[in-house]
Amino acid sequence: MIDVAIIDYKMGNLFSVQRACENVGLNSLITSDIEVVKNSRAIILPGVGSFAEAMKNLDDLGLTKAIKAFVKTGKPFMGICLGFQLLYTESEEFGTTKGLDILKGTVIKFPQNNSNGELIRIPHIGWNQIFPIQNEKPWNNSLLEGIAPGEYMYFVHSFYVKPENDNFTLTKTEYKDFEFCSSIMKDNIFAAQFHPEKSAKSGLGIYNKFADQINHNN
């Protein structure tokens, strides 16, 4: 049994995710094989690009049902960037596209201007800070445990998640005075708008915690 199935649906920075897994001692496989996904100890859903194309590819490969079924097992799941957005109910990119609907919320495009009327450059690319939504003991018992509030992570995106509520929101990030949800954790699901595998030592720390979660779960 492999430790981590990295979902290959023809969109994403798969090899950088695999290298991060290797760096923390996780045996991973880039795959679109439903049986491999089903039998792995954990899965990572990465991705960059179009929400609608991503959902079409997942459906065509039979991975939509496989991902939903896997999440229900309680085994560790990580979603990254587009893989984070796909967890939600729908996206407004190029019209409305239904997502996996594992979490409730909508994926929407950054506004053209912030509250001060300043132009927001899209896409949001580069290093930006993550801040806890809770002030006391932020991120305890999550994959972000040990990471300092205000730590910088690497982002590349034009759309952001607007959850129905903040019950599962771990962090928020500010871009041009506009605040958005940058990571969540619910039960066995951790997902982030930023790329941990591109976020230096702190990002690798998230993979270390993911490895701990996998080993504790099995």
How is this structure best described in words?
This protein has 218 residues and is an alpha/beta fold. It has helices at residues 14-23, 34-39, 51-60, 63-73, 82-85, 200-217, and strands spanning 4-7, 28-31, 42-45, 77-80, 90-91, 97-98, 105-109, 124-129, 131-132, 152-157, 159-163, 169-175, 178-186, 189-192. The strands form three sheets. The chain has an eight-stranded mixed sheet with strand order 2-1-3-4-14-13-12-9. Strands 6-5-7-11 form a four-stranded mixed sheet, with helices on one face.
Secondary structure layout:
Elements: E1 4-7, H1 14-23, E2 28-31, H2 34-39, E3 42-45, H3 51-60, H4 63-73, E4 77-80, H5 82-85, E5 90-91, E6 97-98, E7 105-109, E8 124-129, E9 131-132, E10 152-157, E11 159-163, E12 169-175, E13 178-186, E14 189-192, H6 200-217
Parallel strand pairs: 1-2, 1-3, 3-4, 4-14, 5-7
Antiparallel strand pairs: 5-6, 7-11, 8-10, 9-12, 12-13, 13-14
Q: What characteristics describe this protein?
A:
8-stranded mixed β-sheet, globular, 4-stranded mixed β-sheet, alpha/beta, 14 strands, 218 residues
* Uncertain residue ranges: none
Shape: globular
Mean pLDDT: 93
Give, in spatial order, the strands making up the sheet with the most strands.
2-1-3-4-14-13-12-9
Total count of strands: 14
- The helix/strand class is alpha/beta
Helix content: 25-40%
Largest sheet: 8 strands, mixed
Strand fraction: 25-35%
Distance between the termini: 11 Å
Cα Rg: 16 Å
**Count of separate DSSP helical elements:** 6
What is the H/E string?
EHEHEHHEHEEEEEEEEEEH
What's this, in brief?
With 218 residues, this protein is of the alpha/beta class.
